[in-house]
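#onboarding

Welcome to the new folks! Below is a worked example of what a typical request in this channel looks like: someone posts a single protein sequence, and someone else replies with the predicted structure as tokens. Don't worry about understanding the tokens yet, we'll cover that in week two.

Example request:
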Amino acid sequence: GNGTARILILGNSFAGIVNSYLIPLLRPIAKEIRLFSHHGCRILINGTCPEFSIAFPKVLQQMKPDATWIISSYNPENLHSYFADNYAHPTTELMSLLKPSY
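Example response:
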């Protein structure tokens, strides 16, 4: 990238935690990085947070990001300690952690 990307990160509190690790990795390619998250809301999965589910499409429409990451976890136990333990290679570890599980 040439530093002009607009990136939106959507999700629950897991997205908020991961956001602090993503920003240094995305900053070289992005002019704007926004986080839109709500604790306990697994958007696109269930209807537990109708206000958030209604609001995030409006955020997408208004921001018009070049890339949108949806990051959500049901129970991110020990996430902070995971990164603390694996910080020697944060990029590799983060990408490994964020791979979809099928």
